[in-house]
Amino acid sequence: MGDCGDFSSYLSRCHSCRVESGCWMMYDHPNYMGNGYFFRRGEYADYMSMFGMSSWIRSCRMIPMYRGSYRMRIYERENFMGQMYEMMDDCDSIMDRYRMSHCQSCHVMDGHWLMYEQAHYRGKMWYFRPGEYRNFSNMGGMRFMSMRRIMDSCSHSIQFHSNYFNVGISSLKTTKRLTMNFQVTFYEERNFQGRSYNCTGDCADFSSYVSHCHSCRVHSGCWMMYDNPNYMGNQYFFRRGEYADCMSMFGMSNCIRSCRMISMYRGSYRMRIYERENFMGQMYEMMDDCDNTMDRYRMSHCQSCHVMDGHWLMYEQPNYRGRMWYFRPGEYRNFSNMDGMRFMSMRRIMNSWY
Predict the structure, then answer these.
(1) Handedness of CA 241, 177, 63, 31 (dihedral sign)
(2) Architecture of domain 268-353 in CATH?
């Protein structure tokens, strides 16, 4: 099991859960919105009472395993202004340690962190992975007063129970996430020359480490690379290997600016594709690769989809050509935020690729 943007496809509500392994962020709204709650391995028979929640869990996001150093810069004001302090360990009160009344922006360089609105790790929390956070306006204007490292994220598997049925969801029980260390090294120049940056997880912007990236070595794992910061722009799929000249190999007009790792997955694959937006028009359910939706289904293009299981790559042209997009489990009602792409072929990201 991995990220799930909405549980409504599996159960009407969720009042208890068992975390078999790993660390997770749970949210009381779909699509990773609302209040966030940190869960690690254990049994939560009535988590609403345990955490003082007013609503049950609606979505969840796994926290990838990380082993390495931890480093974060916190700033007193938005856009990295005001007092700045660099942290490498937990802090139960920024007022006591730094005489800083609150934190309004931060830059996470290494590791995964939880930040809290009150001292001593109390109040609302937020999960931060490596990236630049220039202001917290989209987090309800929270001002954080304490922060701690997420020290141990293991192999991932989770089982949910409704308040009516004390059974696991069959479609989720068959899925497994495999633990491995992901690593890629980015180089400023072609042929692995110039400054380099060793990356072991998602990175929203390389500019803090290298001014640009023209070559890379993928030591392990599968990755999506983007030619704009914050996982925007054109997407490119990389698996283990050496890429001495990324721009020439992939026909890129711009160098890599951000990357996102694709967690290893073992289980069934299932996706529904629709001819029109909002799950309208012809619908077909797929469990394997399709090199041409026109040849197989007489469908000229796909404008919405629902990925139930597995990780997929979808392409705007038949035979896995043209621009691509990475899809993980979730509902995609229209592709307007994907430059209006209409996909013509799709393939599964298989664990043999790792």
Answers:
(1) positive
(2) Sandwich (2.60)
